[in-house]
Amino acid sequence: MNYMPGTASLIQDIDKKHLVLLRDGRTLIGYLRSIDQFANLVLHQTVERIHVGKKYGDIPRGIFVVRGENVVLLGEIDLEKESDTPLQQVSIEEILEEQRVEQQAKHESEKLKVQALKERGLSIPRADTLDEY
Amino acid sequence: MDLLGDHEENLAERLTKMVIDNELEDPAIMQAVQTRLPVQHPGGLNSSIWDGSAVLRRIRGPLLTQEMPSVSVLDYALPQRPPQARDEERDLSERALPRRSSSPVIGSPPVRAVPIGTPPKQAAMPNFNQQILCPKPVHIRAPIQQRYPAPYSERMSPNQLCSVPHGRMSPSQFARISGLVSSPLPSMNPKLLQGRVGQMVSPASGFRAFFGAPPPPAPPSAQQQHPPCPGSHLQNLRSQPQMFRPDTTHLHPQHRRLLHQRQQQNRNQHRNLNGSAGDRGGHRNSHQEQMQKDSYANLMLQREKDWVSKIQMMQLQSTDPYLDDYYYQNYFQKLEKISATEEMHGDGPKKERTKLITPQVAKLEHAYKPVQFEGSLGKLTVSSVNNPRKMIDAVVTSRSEDDETKEKQVRDKRRQTLVTIEKTYSLLLDVEDYERRYLLSLEGERPALMEERKQKICDMYDNLRGKMPSQDRPSDDHFVQIMCIRKGKRLVARILPFLSTEQAADILMATARNLPFLIKKDAQDEVLPCLLRPFSHVLYHLPLGTVTSLLQQLANLPHNATALAPANLHLSAVLQNKVLELILFHLAGVSSQTELMLMATRELLRIPQAALAKPVSTPYNLLTLFSRYVDQQKLNFIGPLSSGLGVLLPLVAPCNSLLYQREGKGGCTVTVRITVHLCK
């Protein structure tokens, strides 16, 4: 039952399992229970999934109310296909450790890059320090 | 003596009156209160602020903004309550707080006790029932302008409606809240709905002016497929040149109909689901199962989903879909045309395309008047959504010529050209739109439209060629500047069909004169080929003399093509080649002037073989012409031909293949004859 052809609406997605990517990089998986005109979401039985390489870990979070402007994208999860994934689930501690290691490595390489550029007299402003508008 | 300065028995009366808030809406009651105003307490405290009507009005201040839905400017301005207005003037200077502008349309958005984003607490049904109960004839300002039921956001939420004290409501308040009742969708019964679809065009004249075509005769089935009816609205509403804001606070009847139908279907579905027999599809069963397992399902009620849908649908309303939603409307028209042509071929309707309904709503004229108070000095600076404040005082300073350096001048010139291109593009879009406007306009307006169109075409041409009037347009400079920019070339390609023959020829000549330069400049853009089609079209309509001069122009051009870097060689050569071919084939189609043909052929042969591309368009009588040519001027012709034998054969081949498709043996013999000649 298509409400309005040619448009996108979240009404069809209600009560289905969704993966939501937020602007700060978090990935949430939960059942979409309610929406409003700003695409604020209410997620039920939410799990925050952290991906590092081929591994992932789930942190159960409960009920989330997400403000619409912070959503990058969201998509419905096919429950049948959900299980056949090449990724390997690990425990929370392990994945957090992996994440920390990854962040550190990234930070190091970033530092090196900035250093190299500085030596050459260039400076690239970091994206998060730029103004949004 | 109490602080209120009133007699005690009156105080008790007033207090009881304060409780029954709703009745204060009624002017009759208000007047009654005022006539019983006590004598002001002489001297001492200025207690006039506590006078009866003022007290009561102040106390119900916040509620006022809710309960008085000003549905239209006219309503607000109607002198329904002159006594109140007069009172306010008197009291304003003594009040602590100035009275807020409560018009939702003019001025700041009103303060709301229940924020606008609140979904309805109770079912929306009671609301609609009330609409039937109390039909109020509505004053419609003009046949075109619409009155809709009270804007959703301004309506009292059903919760409040239902919790009216004592269950009473004064009829005037009732009617004002439910607003225009000509919304003809009271019932929720699907059968009634179907029966009433024919009556969809409301008795109120305002609606009839809006709906041009009758609503779809057969009510849409459960598939929710709505036949697109974009034209019906357009026929009745003409877009006005002024900036009018759309009245988007009300839901368009079409959309409301959609919503109700959906509600119907949902109810039917739920009813069916509950009594589902085993013959329902497996999908339905699994769906039901899933619903049973998921005990948290349907936390969001259907009513709430509809509410969100309603908001989304309201956002689709616009005053002029062709302005706001140009690409979708045009795209859908193209699709319809395609399906119409397919249908004509006897295949039957391919697929029904459901169009998103973007209904046209009336425009309301808004003249924002900031809130002013009598006797105050200065104006309030209120910046709101409807009246944004000017933030920056930007002043345009014109530069003097002396200060600029050479680079700046060059940059300015380029910028000037860019501006010209943009202006001409606007004109072009307008001109292209005239066809549609023509269809929508009345008979009397059409000559004026045609005049406008002609004027715009002239303006476009002037823009292209450089409006410096005076002499004979000695400089192509302006035009060449435009042609150096990618957008300019596309612009010229689009304008050419609209120009008259001489104007188009003029453009062609200018292009031909500067062709090498343009080719060089086009190396990066590679957009010149887009001009070929319109150029060829123009060529077909040109008189022979013009073509001759054009050809001479091309022939006299210094052959910069070979001087260019090898990378560009192919493209530029192809270009020149194509232009020459165009002319050649055109000549062939028109006449058989031998010298010209010779010249053209020679030019053609000068181009290296690798660059010889497929001709743009091949007239079928080319070979017959060649053969005639050969007979007449054997010697002259064979000379250059023999040198370019290898070159010409590829040229013949495509012509040949074409001929095979069209005429059987005739073409064959001609080919044979030519090859025979060539071999000699």
Automatic annotation (TrEMBL), chain A:
Alphabetical keyword list: Cytoplasm, mRNA processing, mRNA splicing, Phosphoprotein, Ribonucleoprotein, RNA-binding
Keyword Mitochondrion belongs to the record: no
Subcellular location: Cytoplasm; Cytoplasm, P-body
Short name of one Pfam family: LSM
Residues spanning the membrane: none
A single Gene Ontology CC term: Lsm1-7-Pat1 complex
Coiled-coil parts of chain: none
Location of the Sm domain: 5-80
GO MF terms, alphabetically ordered: mRNA binding
Entry-linked InterPro entries: Lsm1, LSM_dom_sf, PTHR15588, Sm, Sm_dom_euk/arc
Family per similarity comment: Belongs to the snRNP Sm proteins family.
Subunit details: Interacts with SLBP; interaction with SLBP occurs when histone mRNA is being rapidly degraded during the S phase. LSm subunits form a heteromer with a donut shape.
Protein role: Probably involved with other LSm subunits in the general process of degradation of mRNAs.
PANTHER family noted in UniProt: LSM1, U6 SNRNA-ASSOCIATED SM-LIKE PROTEIN LSM1
This protein's name: U6 snRNA-associated Sm-like protein LSm1
Record organism: Crocodylus porosus (Saltwater crocodile)
Automatic annotation (TrEMBL), chain B:
Extent of Low complexity compositional bias: 261-274
GO cellular component: nuclear speck; P-body; PML body
GO biological processes: deadenylation-dependent decapping of nuclear-transcribed mRNA; P-body assembly
Chief location category: cytoplasm
Compartments (UniProt record): Cytoplasm, P-body; Nucleus speckle; Nucleus, PML body
Listed InterPro entries: Pat1-like, PAT1_dom
Gene Ontology molecular function, alphabetical: RNA binding
Biased segments, Basic and acidic residues type: 84-97, 280-291
Disordered, as annotated region: 74-112, 208-237, 253-291
Keyword hit for DNA repair: no
Limits of the mRNA decay factor PAT1 domain: 369-510
Entry keywords, A to Z: Cytoplasm, Nucleus, Phosphoprotein, RNA-binding
Similarity comment: Belongs to the PAT1 family.
The protein's name: Protein PAT1 homolog 1
Source species of the chain: Crocodylus porosus (Saltwater crocodile)
Gene label: PATL1
